[in-house]
Amino acid sequence: MKKILNFFAIVLASITLSSCGYNSMVTAEEAAKGQWANVESSYQRRADLIPGLVATVKGYAKHEKETFTSVIEARAKATSVNIDASKLDAASIAKFQQAQQGLSGALSKLMVVSERYPDLKANQQFINLQAQLEGTENRINVERNRFNNLVKDYNTMIRTFPKNLSAMIFSFKNLDYYKADPSSSKAPEISF
């Protein structure tokens, strides 16, 4: 009799726990964290393209040393910032974003330098690298959007009834979104 009661208790517990949403919350949280790795991978691709771009431009513009130095330093800083996916909070995402913003600014300066050299702009290697960099910037944007969508899905899941009760019991916490740099809302000033 005791074995039968234990069996029914296990079956009842299994049914109850399977409907609490624990597994779906874990799946959603891991999907968001995995997507963060895709964001970092896209930024890494950009960082990997930069040495070739700098080397190509250097061949044409040897006296632009300050620009090359700032690009190389910004790349080093951007690639040194790593975020633990289990600690995706607003502060760590902002730190990552700040390092990437510095690299974006340095790349903009490099592109301005390239405008001064018509032969460089016609160089096939430079054209290919520039196209790859443009494609990578698009990938970064897509991956950030996917990350934010998965964070939205996860956060919605753990805040809606009845899963919010299980989320509270199992200590599931909201994840932070990737947010745009506040300075990006201002149009850049362009002067000729």
What secondary-structure arrangement, pairings included, does this model have?
Elements: H1 2-18, H2 22-60, H3 65-80, H4 90-115, H5 118-122, H6 124-159, H7 163-169
Short characterization:
With 192 residues, the chain is mainly α.
Q: In sequence order, what are the helices and strands, one letter per element? A: HHHHHHH
Computed over alpha carbons, the radius of gyration is 24 Å
| Mean pLDDT over the full residue set | 79
User: Proportion of β residues?
Assistant: under 5%
Poorly predicted segments? none
Number of helices: 7
- Strand-pairing-aware structural class: mainly alpha
Helical content band? over 70%
Distance between the termini: 89 Å
Number of strands: 0
Q: What's the shape?
A: elongated
Main sheet: strands, sense, barrel = none
Please describe what this structure looks like.
This protein is mainly α and 192 residues long. The chain has seven helices and no strands. Helix 2 packs antiparallel against helix 3 and helix 2 packs parallel to helix 4. The radius of gyration is 24 Å and the shape is elongated. The relative contact order is 0.15.
